[in-house]
Amino acid sequence: MSTVVIESRYNGPAGTGNGGWSAGTIAALVDRPAGTVVTLLAPPPLATPLSVVRDADRVSVVGPDGVTVGEGAPAHVDTEPVPPVDFATAVEASKDYSGLADHPFPTCFVCGPQRAIGDGLRLFPGRLGSGRTAAPWRVPDDVTQTMVWAALDCPGGWTVGVEARPYVLGRIAVRLDGVPAPGDECVVMGQLLSSEGRKALVATTLYSPTGEPLARSRATWIAIA
After folding, report:
1. Mean pLDDT of 62-80
2. Closest Cα partner for 41 from 18, 24, 60?
3. DSSP string of 26-58?
4. DSSP H helical segments within the chain, as ranges?
5. How far apart are the C-alpha atoms of 78 and 213, rounded to whole Å?
């Protein structure tokens, strides 16, 4: 049986995997990763071999304790792109990123302000009004499809206001049309679609420097009890 590992660098909450990176790791195991849905069922452990279990076109990853961490399967993702802003507008919005002052997971690989440049992605989504966020992203040299999944994660979560009530990713469906090139100045947009009780439904879109949507997602975030 094959295994997969989420390396310690790719954390979200301390000691567990970032939701987007973990979901992207599972998506890479699915036969049709261009359109994939991943459900996270338990906090993804770091630096731990996870067994890969296949059942037709569905893939599960299971921890050494027998707990299923997540499941992935092909999906038709028809989410509309979040309306974009240009890179300069995203840069200005990011200056008011709430996580700079109050962050429940300050070492998060994607949006943690305590991560050094070149180590974390340092995506700082600033709010624009109407439930949208925008984050500028200068794409690093080691960009991969899995990293694009990670980049689509947190800008959606910050539309909910995670500084006031921490949320984590529960499920994410991604349509991946392209991967940006190293050095590209991209924009990641987030949009709050609905919120009820402990669940929030959000959308995100990654835009290329020319304004083309490279990837989009629809995700469910769950408030930590």
Report:
1. 96
2. 60
3. HHTTSS-TTEEEEEE-SPPBSS--EEEEEETTE
4. 19-27, 87-94, 145-151, 154-157
5. 13
Q: Tell me if the pTM is above 0.90.
A: yes
Is residue 34 pLDDT above 80, yes or no? no
pLDDT band for 161, please (50, 70, 90 cuts). Answer: confident
Answer yes or no: are the C-beta atoms of 139 and 148 closer than 8 Å: no
| CA dihedral (185, 177, 58, 198) positive or negative | positive
Residue 37 C-alpha from the chain's centroid: 12
Domain encompassing residue 93: 1-225
Give residue 12's identity as a one-letter amino acid code.
G
Number of domains in the chain: 1
- Amino acid at position 215, single letter: A
Provide the pLDDT confidence category of residue 141 given band limits of 50, 70 and 90. Answer: very high
- The helices-and-strands tally (H runs, E runs) of the chain is 4, 11
What is the Cα gyration radius of the chain? 16
- The CATH number that applies at residue 207 is 2.40.160.210
- Residue 156: phi, psi to the nearest 5? -75, -40
Q: What's the DSSP call for residue 60?
A: E
171 vs 70: CA distance, rounded Å = 9
Q: Which of 82, 76, 133 is nearest to 110 (CA)?
A: 133
Read off φ and ψ for residue 10, nearest 5 degrees: -100, 50
Name 50's Cβ contacts closer than 8 Å, sequence gap at least 6.
3, 4, 5, 6, 44, 61, 62, 63, 69
Strand 213-223 relative to strand 185-196: parallel, antiparallel, unpaired?
Answer: unpaired
